Predict the structure.
Amino acid sequence: MAAKAEKPPPLPLHEIEGNGGVFSTFSAYLVNPPRNGEPVGRPSIGFGYINMGYGRDLVALTVTETPWERLELGFGYDQLNLGDLPTAIAAPPMNGPRIDNTLAMYNANARLLILKENEFDQKWLPAITAGIHYKYNDGVNRIDDQLGGGLSTTGLSNHEGLDFTLYASKMLTFLPRPVLVNVGGRATKSAEIGLLGFTDEYSFLFEGSVVVLVTDRIMLAAEYKQQPRGFTPIPGLIGAPDDWWTIDAGYVVNSHMTVAVGYGHFGTVANHEANGVWGITTKWEF
């Protein structure tokens, strides 16, 4: 009887919206697809935390299920603590109303693997995955009401949006160590991935990452994510957004668990810069 195939490493990671990727960008590879002839894949769960300073932090709870080799379903819950923003609005010189301290966003994702890597015996072919992502912000409308429509006047007039993504990934094996290149595009109405709400017009953005497998267990990555400029900043409340970039290190603990830490530059998030932020994510595959 043939020996049971060993479980592959638990890669890719979970990114903060509940998809296979790095910290904030995707990979065309799907998470934990069926193995050993199983009819469906097994679920994966993850946790992420990013400290942005000034009392702001982001907590992410993620889960994915890949029922078939070419379909990944994912869910992500993101909670943003607004730090000192509510106090700053209520205090002089703004003397504004008191607003909620947190915003919660729900992400429902579906990604289809259009092309497998090296499919049709073409060694140059990357994996290509298309995705659709529904986002619902629970709280931004309430804060808009508390501000007397202040967010709507900036162009952040919606509490939900639909993103569309297309990603290509290729593992380069001709270098001293394997290097994974992920390149993607996103159509979105989101402000700061939807944490601050949604505009009426789509922006078409670039994002991607490079991951070096230093050893079979240690990875180093760098990622870049464009952010839309579809709303009007309000001094002291919401600053002009900037593109995100992070530098990350990941470790494969065992065949089920990965842990990664990251250092990032997020530009202005709400009323303060979020540069020099740090974060951690972990994922468990069943």
Notes: The CA atoms of residues 56 and 118 lie 43 Å apart. The domain at 13-285 is CATH 2.40.160.40 (Porin). Helices lie at 85-90, 140-146.
